[in-house]
Each structure stands twice: as structure tokens, then as C-alpha cells.
User: Which sequence fits this backbone?
């Protein structure tokens, strides 16, 4: 069981980032129409805008619809954003409320990075505990008055060490690689997280035979049966008869092939796939020779 995040209450009134940008001359509001609620941002006249929790975007020409900041002024606008946030003081406490202010290329240290141009903001910020009332505005380890933003992670099942408590920092990205290892699935090559070894009862643990192992054992039996059956016999539906007239040995039942551990199952599958690949290469070589002749 894993949660998204915890909750830390705020001691101070909500801080509107757009107001800080407006005071620095980076954002312009549309004229009020007398309606209640927050004023609307005039994007045609604004150089930057706060969006999506902890992100501030520069209105960049060529990237953003209606962008009005030329590329050669991009860094200057980002500097002004950072300066505005750094200089701000929350009225009630008189303190700067920000625990972190980063340009996006520096945000990899907290797991944020940009692949498509707008994956993350041009400037990323986080509040100190006690400030901020919106989602995603605190750092992952924030705590205050017995409250924490940290997630809850509980494991139970075969191969899991009973009663273990992990003291090191874990990330949500560690969950999928760990599950894949426990279940005996192939390694997740695109995963960013790592395995949580501290919760495993033992690295080469013996596991019960879950449904996926039964299915893979059946696949293994099917591959071995196919390899033992000549191609012509498969087409005709006849039983396999090896050269010399001796009867082919019957294929083992999946239950008899069921390995005792995940590691043994993976090794058997790799061997069967290697045999299948070797057979296919030999077949293709013979086919090529026949074609050339």
C-alpha cells in the first residue's frame, strides 16, 4: 500500500504567486469586471505566470501560444522571477516563505526535469512548512507540528521481511522495480527508481507458486514441445517421430516443470528462448541455402 503524499497544515494566509509577479512588473491582470474571486491574468501583457502547483512559466516566443518574451530575454526574465521570490516577505510573519527556488535545469536534484519544453516550469519553488495552501507546494520531506508530507508505504506478502522498517529515503519510483523483482518479472529498463532491498526476506528467497509462474511454466512446456516436434509433423497434426523410428518422449506437464524459485523459472525460460532462437537461425540458414540453389 502506498499513498501519494501526506498533509501539513498552513499557519499563514494563502500566498498568491501571481501577486508577487505582478508587484515585480512581470504579470498584468485584466481590468476587474466586479465579479468576486481572483482577477484574470492578461497573458498578452504578462511576461510570466504561475501555473500547476509549484511552477512559474515564462511567456516565451516560439514555445507558448501568444508568447511575448524573445529568446534573448528569457534568462533576464527568469532572473527577475528569482529576485522577486527571494525579496518577498509574507506580511503576517515578516519572513521569506520559500524553502527552495530553482531554475528548471537545476531541478533534477528533486526529480524534476524537462524533456518536451514545458514538462516543468521555467522556475520551480517550494514553500517552507507552515506556508502555502495549494497542492504540491512543499518539499517531499516537509514536517511541522507532528504532521508530515511524507508518503506511507507498507509491504506484506511472500518474500517480504516481517516487521522491517526502512530508514533510508524511498521514492514512489522505487515501488515498481521492487514489485517486478518480487514477482520475478523482467527488469523494468525504463524505470527511474531502484529496488528496495531492505524489505526483502532474502535476496534468493523461495516464493510460493503464483498464477504468473504457472502460466510461464505452461509457456515453457509449449516451447519445448514445439522444439521437439518436426515442422512437417506440426503441419499435419501428427505426433513427433525423431529420426531412427524411436518414439518421441512425451512433453513434461507444466506442473512437473514448475521451478521452485523465481530465479530458476527465469533461467529455464532464458534457456528455452535461446533454444528457440538457435532453431530459428538454423532454419533461416537452410532456407537461404535452398533459395540460393
Assistant:
Amino acid at each position: 500500500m502506498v499513498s501519494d503524499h501526506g498533509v501539513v497544515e498552513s499557519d499563514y494566509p494563502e500566498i498568491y504567486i501571481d501577486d508577487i509577479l505582478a508587484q515585480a512588473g512581470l504579470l498584468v491582470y485584466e481590468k476587474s469586471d466586479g465579479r468576486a474571486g481572483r482577477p484574470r491574468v492578461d497573458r498578452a501583457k504578462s511576461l510570466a505566470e504561475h501555473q500547476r502547483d509549484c511552477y512559474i512559466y515564462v511567456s516565451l516566443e516560439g514555445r507558448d501560444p501568444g508568447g511575448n518574451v524573445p529568446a534573448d530575454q528569457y534568462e533576464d526574465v527568469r532572473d527577475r522571477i528569482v529576485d522577486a521570490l527571494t525579496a518577498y516577505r509574507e506580511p503576517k510573519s515578516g519572513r521569506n516563505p520559500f524553502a527552495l527556488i530553482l531554475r528548471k535545469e537545476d531541478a533534477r536534484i528533486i526529480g524534476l526535469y524537462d524533456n518536451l519544453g514545458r514538462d516543468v516550469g521555467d522556475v520551480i519553488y517550494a514553500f517552507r512548512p507552515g506556508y502555502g495552501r495549494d497542492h504540491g507546494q512543499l518539499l517531499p520531506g516537509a514536517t511541522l507540528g507532528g504532521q508530515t508530507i511524507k508518503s506511507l508505504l507498507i509491504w506484506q506478502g511472500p518474500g517480504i521481511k516481517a516487521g522491517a522498517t526502512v530508514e533510508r529515503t524511498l521514492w514512489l519510483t522505487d515501488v515498481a522495480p521492487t514489485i517486478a523483482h518480487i514477482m520475478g518479472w523482467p527488469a523494468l529498463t525504463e524505470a527511474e527508481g531502484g529496488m528496495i532491498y531492505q524489505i526483502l526476506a532474502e535476496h534468493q528467497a523461495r516464493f510460493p507458486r503464483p498464477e504468473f509462474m504457472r502460466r510461464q511454466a505452461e509457456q515453457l512446456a509449449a516451447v519445448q514441445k514445439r522444439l521437439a516436434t518436426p515442422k512437417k509433423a506440426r503441419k499435419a497434426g501428427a505426433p513427433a517421430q525423431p529420426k531412427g523410428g524411436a518414439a518421441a518422449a512425451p512433453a513434461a506437464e507444466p506442473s512437473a516443470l514448475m521451478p521452485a524459485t523465481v530465479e530458476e523459472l527465469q533461467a529455464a525460460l532464458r534457456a528455452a528462448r535461446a533454444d528457440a532462437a538457435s532453431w530459428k537461425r538454423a532454419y533461416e540458414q537452410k532456407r537461404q541455402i535452398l533459395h540460393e540453389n
